[in-house]
Amino acid sequence: MGSSTGDDAAVYRISDSQALVVTLDFFPPIVDDPWFYGAISAANAISDVYAMGGKPFLALNIVCFPENLPTSILSEIQKGGQDKADEAGVIIVGGHTIKDEEPKYGMAVLGFIEPGKQVRNTGARLGDKLILTKPIGTGLITTASKRDLVSPGILSGALESMLRLNREASEAMVKVGVNACTDISGFGLLGHLKRMLIGSGMSATVDFSQVPLLEGTWSLADQGIFPGGTESNIEYVNAVVSWDYSLSVASKFILCDPQTSGGLLISVHSSKSEELLADLRLSGNSEATVIGEVSSEKAVGQLIQVVK
What we know:
Layout: E1 10-13, E2 19-27, H1 34-51, E3 55-65, H2 71-88, E4 91-99, E5 104-113, E6 129-132, H3 138-146, H4 152-163, H5 167-176, E7 180-183, H6 188-200, E8 202-207, H7 217-222, H8 229-237, E9 241-243, H9 249-255, E10 264-268, H10 273-282, E11 289-297, E12 304-307
Parallel strand pairs: 3-4, 8-12, 9-12
Antiparallel strand pairs: 1-2, 2-5, 3-5, 6-10, 6-11, 7-10, 8-11
Helix pairs in contact: 1-2, 3-4, 5-10, 6-8
């Protein structure tokens, strides 16, 4: 499978019955606690395999670490990654560490899938429902946390969301059968939707009132607390988005908030959407919601209509 559509992972066919799903992701700390940082980084890296409908089984650690920090911090980061890998049934078989001025941690991850059964980000069809499995807002909340502007309860909710594996959501979508999927990370909700729609040759409508938000997201957005990547995300989608005139600036920024270890965005035939929602909610994704639909074939210059 090529890289032209920006799928979440590569798929390499080994035989008629087996293929490898291959991905890699790592980033600097988004939270102060080293264990949470390691665990979230691992969940984020493994998520790309789940987005393709695969089953992760093996990983390699990727580490950059400063000489002036105690190695006990690195041990906690790697313990967080190991604990999350254990939860996912993934074996960490090694990795590589280099010296750097800023810590960075993540994983290269391998998964298995049957050839032809991978869920790509390019198969959305007219009339599909768009389902988001996790609330958004992690970028705002972790940015506010770094500035000591968020309560422990708000931060805890974001941590819980980022730590949750997309395993059950992936299994539910594979069981039901869906047309397209991508996981939501650094490009924000609309950025990842844009890539799905371009690859599918479709446009879509998103109902902002239906998009699930983490507790505290609205308050922080109203204060103008956003990570640096939000403005570039808005620039990335602005030319292809038709915004409802009544949407606030904060609303637009929320939809472009860079996520870490976000949920899956799934395009599913309308006749299967209720079954998928039921399965998602039974498997622990209680906030899974229909946030819009694939509304037409791609219009020139306009892919996404955001309504309120």
